[in-house]
Amino acid sequence: MRILGEAAVARFAGKHAAARKPLRRFVTIARNAIWPHFLAVKQTFPAKDLGKQSGRLIFDIGGNKYRLISSVDFKEQILVIERVLTHEEYNREVL
Measuring CA to CA, which residue among 65, 57, 63, 59 is closest to residue 86? Predict the structure, then answer.
């Protein structure tokens, strides 16, 4: 999987030191993954949701402390990281 948007991860990790290791782990796993469809992503990351209205993939990172919002092109094998939020920021935006 090709990863785009790692700058968003770096910015977030710069502000939230505790997020660095779990985000690095996520990026490493995703980069080495081959996901032909949504269910393959769920096998790799069970703590993942599909945004009902947006169709975005929402990953729980760091024991549910952070949310990584992304989109994926399964055919081209590209994961685009759009935003990384704390759990609290995510709840404020979604609710």
Answer: 65
